[in-house]
Amino acid sequence: MKKNRIFSEKERHFLRDNIPGRSFTETADLFNTWIDEDNSEHGTPIVASQVRAFSKNHKIPNGRDTRFKKGQVAHNKGKYCRHSQASEFKKGNVPANHRPTGSTRTSVDGYIEIKVAEPRKWRQLHRVVWEESYGPVPKGHVVIFGDGNKQNVTLENLLLVTRSELARLNQRGLFGGSAELTKTGILVARLINKISSAKRKGKDV
Question: How many domains does the chain have?
Answer without folding.
Answer: 2
